[in-house]
Design goal:
24% helix, 16 strands, Adenylosuccinate Synthetase, Chain A, domain 3, globular, 2 domains, 24% strand, 9 helices, 341 residues, single chain
């Protein structure tokens, strides 16, 4: 396709990352292109993580073409659901009209959220604020530079929602029964051989969007202690306990050997964490299944011993234990809302 012909194309981003391109070791994207003077002509572009773009004509009248290979995948995410000219030379009025049309749909959802939350709390309603990322990804308190771009600790809920911090009267810390990490960064308890693969496969530790395998390891109580300190956790919810079923032994990291001494809390910063050597306490595994168990007494004794020690090291009680993907596959030792009623 000649450069001047590219101006004829408008793309409507239908989907973001939808699969995993194992050949190129990266996510794939599907983007739909419409020929402005022929709406029946559709081109599909597949972009791998390396930024390559190829378009295949679904209409036999259109020849195969290659679009600008310099476009990164993020370009397509930024302009999700917006009609933008393929060369970024769009008609400004068309973009304005399209955006205003979306505004009509969004307008009913706009409100004074902070005020409404305040009124709800004053009337005695129960509110739950949910975080989306791990504490060690926090831009200020995480393992910098392997962090996200914002604050992920519990205090950020007050800032984001516009409520006073004293209104957050219970903080539930959610943790798996083993450790995982996505992407690069220090991981003292990482397991790279058979046990790590067991945790990955049994726990289905693959990115839901990219399909990328997560790194897995033994539970790190020193890292949990740092997360409890940062968030002021009131109670814990331990998930995926059943992933540990069948292992002959289970280890739990109680601290680290760091710069010639033993420490019991994750040190600050990625460089320091990378120099930590884990100190483990070993437990006998359990052969009985914990999947779907709904009461503490029905758990194998080995699992109870493991969880009891985990709670002791965190210095926070375990309030919930998830033993499966369904809502009712949960052991409720202390209901979070009962703590604040």
């Amino acid at each position: 396709m000649e450069p001047q012909e590219r101006k004829q194309f408008v793309h409507l981003h239908r989907t973001c990352i939808f699969g995993y391109n194992r050949k190129n070791d990266g996510p794939s994207m599907s983007v739909t292109y419409y020929l402005m003077d022929d709406p029946d002509t559709i081109l599909i572009s597949t972009m791998a993580a390396r930024g390559k773009a190829k378009a295949v004509a679904r209409n036999p009248k259109v020849s195969l073409c290659v679009l600008d290979e310099k476009w990164p995948p993020t370009y397509l995410q930024v302009y999700c659901d917006a009609r933008i000219d393929a060369t970024m030379e769009s008609d400004p009025q068309r973009v304005i009209d399209s955006t205003l049309t979306l505004g009509i749909r969004i307008r009913p959802m706009v409100a004074d959220v902070s005020y409404r939350l305040d009124q709800a709390m004053k009337s005695g309603q129960r509110l739950l604020f949910e975080g989306a990322q791990g504490s060690l990804l926090d831009v200020d308190h995480g393992t910098y530079p392997y962090v996200t771009s914002s604050n992920t600790v519990a205090a950020a809920a007050a800032v984001g929602a516009g409520v006073g911090p004293q209104r957050l009267n219970y903080v539930l810390g959610i943790t798996k029964a083993y450790a995982t990490r996505v992407g690069a960064g220090p991981f003292p308890t990482e397991l790279t051989e058979d046990v790590g693969e067991h945790l990955r496969q049994r726990g289905q530790e693959f990115g839901s969007v990219t399909g990328r395998a997560r790194r897995c390891g033994w539970f790190d109580a020193a890292a949990l202690r740092r997360a409890v300190q940062l968030n002021g956790a009131t109670g814990l919810c331990v998930t995926k306990l059943d992933v540990l079923d069948g292992l002959p032994r289970v280890q739990l990291c109680t601290g680290y050997r760091y710069e010639g001494r033993t420490v019991d809390i994750l040190p600050f910063g990625a460089d320091a964490v990378a120099r930590c050597e884990p100190v483990y306490q070993e437990f006998a595994g359990w052969s009985d299944s914990t999947f779907g168990v709904r009461t503490w007494s029905d758990l194998p004794s080995g699992a109870r011993s493991y969880l009891t020690r985990l709670s002791e090291l965190a210095e926070v009680p375990i309030d919930l234990i998830s033993t499966g993907p369904e809502r009712d596959q949960t052991i409720v030792l202390r209901h979070p809302f009962s703590v604040v009623d």
